Amino acid sequence: MTTTASDPDTAANLRLILVLGGLVIAALFVSLFVGYAGLDVWSALSDALRGVRSLPATVLVELRLPRALLGGLVGFSLGLAGAAMQGLLRNPLAEPGVVGVFGAAALGTPTDSPDFVRITPADVHWQDIPGGHGAQQAVVLGDPDKPGIYVVRAKFPPYVMDHPHWHPNARYVTVLEGTWYTGTGGTLDLAKAIPLKAATISLR
User: Of 121, 124, 181, 185, which sits most exposed with the smallest number of CB within 10 A?
Assistant: First the structure.
């Protein structure tokens, strides 16, 4: 029986390929959590698997997942082209740019920003506010319970007002429809409430 010196090298190369492949898969998975706004990936994945067209599921399926797959495909193409060039030219310094892989990869770049989100009225899911006497709110983007930017829409039935309260962070409010009465202080005094009509912006 004869043995070759390449057997240990083959085993080492196989282990290296498995390790690098695992790192690539892990990187692709982690990239799903990275974006301009916070995203509950597990909730979005659950909605997507159940066929629920929620905003988190839309962001995951139509934005972040294609971005991750495209990045992996481009990286695989660069590595494959580099190996082919080095083998063909017998030059370890040969690189994929020689055959224009970088220019071809640019064709797969989306015209929008990777996190460009379009939200239609059908994507806004309203929920009743507990004890809100018919008031509703909808989380449009982000998560109010986590650090980062988030967008919430709220609507109140006529003559329904909130109790005096405060927020630990700044809130930018835009009145989209109707008139919103606001005030300051710890006492509800309708006589001092200031009406804000549609298209009014306030910071509190």
Answer: 121
